[in-house]
Write a structure and sequence with these properties.
Chain lengths: 307, 307
């Protein structure tokens, strides 16, 4: 497949990144950082999660964040809901976002440890949720976690993952995100996987969500791109990870992904210096050195006069 | 070109990595770290540089290091020489190493700033050195710095780089390393570049030396591999960089590269847990957190029970 000339990048740091931070991030800081991301040109940002605040206290201020952020009108805001109860809560503020993410783990063990239900139970709920989301006029994006491997079960069958994807599509999801939750994908498999997924899911937006657990996240993104994938998720500052198992490190860094794509001549619509600015601001809010590389080096244009 | 099933990886940390460290590393520590690398299965390690000690004091103990390390008999040790004077000094201890690296920058400006000579002057000296190295029965590996771009001149012409490579090969170099000195390569260009280089240099070992300046080093390595490249250089712990310009960050991390290749089913002959152990030991010697990812996550086999 020919390399896509333009890709979509959804910034997931404000949800997927922040939820893994051990220290509470003040709402003011979250709002400021999301506004900075909006100025960087993101048309898709995942900003909140309607989960139980006792489970993920870091995201308990989701509604306040949605209320207070100021992003351009064409920015689609996404919220994540784990179950119908979460969707009920989200729909109470239905006019504050545009996309709803629902999810399942392809691996039975990971799903059980993550949401304490079987895959079948989760999918039954997901079918109902997808239909409700579509009926509300919202975009439904389904996420399949551990798509490329499970820390508990090892390799996850490609056919099983694509069966789940098809079921989501039939229920009304217009986008399916394949999550490398604990960073077990490699570029050879990414190439094979996305060729198969794009072939199996015509008319559905196929999104790659890689982690940089052992440093090969951008190699996976490149391989997926070469296979025809044109939609990606990433996290500024390389924030994020996965609570299960402990020790899983972060998402791929948005600024590194954008830099790679721009250097290859692939358009993202993003203003890279502003993405880096937002990541540096996150670094200052969190008070520790973040692990993205562009945050240190800056865009390639700065190479001649490093700052 | 079919993906190589087996690759060579040269560990360059003890030279390319250590020389960029601001604090002096005691000789005892260098010896212990190189011995640990030998135990990890490297058959190629770059260990020393015959440069003026007032220019790079960190490597002033090169001969003592060569004297004291204990690595398996099949480990080929490489030394770097910048000019004929350096080669004279290296040949005084000729039986302590097996490979000699000579180099030039493809970019005129970078060459001038790095070694204060024109490319023509450097190449005239390199021609003489290559012949002397071969006459001594040693392997001559030529390195072309700034092969993929120059921080001062921008894009570097591919034809110019390959002309230099051919001249090195004619002078007796059996290996040509293409160095992404300041991390300006991207995977699309790596793919094009290595296809052209392998085509133009039959019978010569073509080696990729990438940096991870903006996080895409492993994507470049994957692209080079897919183009048929089967020889790589990397640095444990992601140590290294380039003194010109200041701010250029490190090489690709050996442990991340090895992990990616092993996960893809590409053999390296290396013992990954031992590579990680050596990188963690380097971290402890240098007293700061190094930037490789596998140093935190461990090999994929540890994912189920993170340490």
């Amino acid at each position: 497949m020919a390399r896509p000339q333009r890709v979509q990048i959804r910034e997931v740091g404000p949800r997927d990144g922040f939820q893994n931070e051990p220290e509470h991030i003040p709402t003011d800081d979250k709002v400021r950082l999301i506004n900075a991301l909006g100025r960087a040109g993101f048309t898709r940002i995942e900003v909140a999660s309607f989960v139980r605040p006792d489970v993920i206290p870091q995201l308990a201020d989701g509604v306040e964040v949605l209320d207070r952020i100021e992003v351009p009108d064409d920015t689609k805001l996404m919220v994540l809901v784990p179950n119908s109860k979460g969707l009920d809560n989200a729909l109470k503020v239905r006019d504050k976002f545009h996309e709803v993410a629902i999810f399942v783990s392809a691996s039975e063990t990971h799903n059980k440890k993550n949401v304490n239900r079987t895959v079948d139970e989760t999918m039954a709920d997901n079918d109902v949720m997808a239909k409700r989301i579509v009926a509300e006029g919202l975009d439904c994006a389904a996420v399949i976690a551990t798509s490329f491997g499970c820390p508990f079960e090892g390799k996850v069958d490609l056919g099983r993952v694509l069966d789940l994807a098809e079921r989501f599509a039939e229920a009304g999801a217009t986008e399916i995100g394949f999550g490398d939750t604990t960073g077990m994908c490699n570029p050879a498999y990414a190439s094979e996987f996305f060729a198969a997924a794009l072939d199996r899911l015509p008319g559905v937006e196929v999104t790659a969500h890689f982690h940089n657990t052992r440093g090969q996240g951008l190699a996976n993104a490149y391989a997926a791109l070469e296979a025809g994938c044109a939609s990606f998720e990433s996290s500024f500052g390389e924030l994020g990870g996965c609570p299960v198992p402990a020790g899983s490190t972060g998402n791929i860094a948005t600024e590194d992904l954008v830099s790679m794509f721009h250097e290859m001549g692939v358009e993202t619509g993003l203003d890279l210096p502003r993405v880096i600015e937002a990541a540096r601001e996150a670094q200052s809010v969190l008070g520790r050195k973040l692990t993205s590389h562009s945050i240190v080096a800056g865009p390639i244009e700065w190479a001649a006069s490093p700052r």
